[in-house]
């Protein structure tokens, strides 16, 4: 009986927190935004990131599915994170495949490429999306309260990648990509994941890391150029010198 009262009390708190969050989102009439979600992950606001990416994931956006997985993993919701990494993998998101490989999980084939639905089935929406949003408040609290002492903590998540961390020479990202490798980031640590076995696997610069490999969608900010003959868009371009992505205008 006592446990039942505790569960009811916790449920009320969660719904209150969720209600405040939802009201603030709806009250400001700000639609789910991929860019806002990315910015939230960069400042480690995984609650806000999860809200935006969960809404976009319902529309079948594979990049948002991957980034929702990243947000969930960072608040110790591993099983749900794996679900979304696998869903993103089925839609062809390469970052999700790399993360699943590093975690030792099965990598689903890209069997849903080109079949993006307007939204997930109602049953999945209710069972996964709603439960995800309800769990964010608890997940974030546990993440910061645990301070690395509980199972699935920051230390535990980092240990997943320990087997691929080697004392190898750091080389530029362009050279890593030529070897068929890609940098995978997690908890401030980075590793090179390669499509084939190399005698001397490279290691990426730690300056590359945001949190994990995020899927980046360019902002399609189309506008007419001064001469009125071409359109320009803002795209994310990787800068080898800065070891990070930067926005760059590309005109056509």
TrEMBL record:
Gene3D superfamilies: Tetratricopeptide repeat domain. InterPro entries: TPR-like_helical_dom_sf. It comes from the Bacteria. This is Sel1 repeat-containing protein. The lineage of its organism: Bacteria, Pseudomonadati, Pseudomonadota, Betaproteobacteria, Nitrosomonadales.
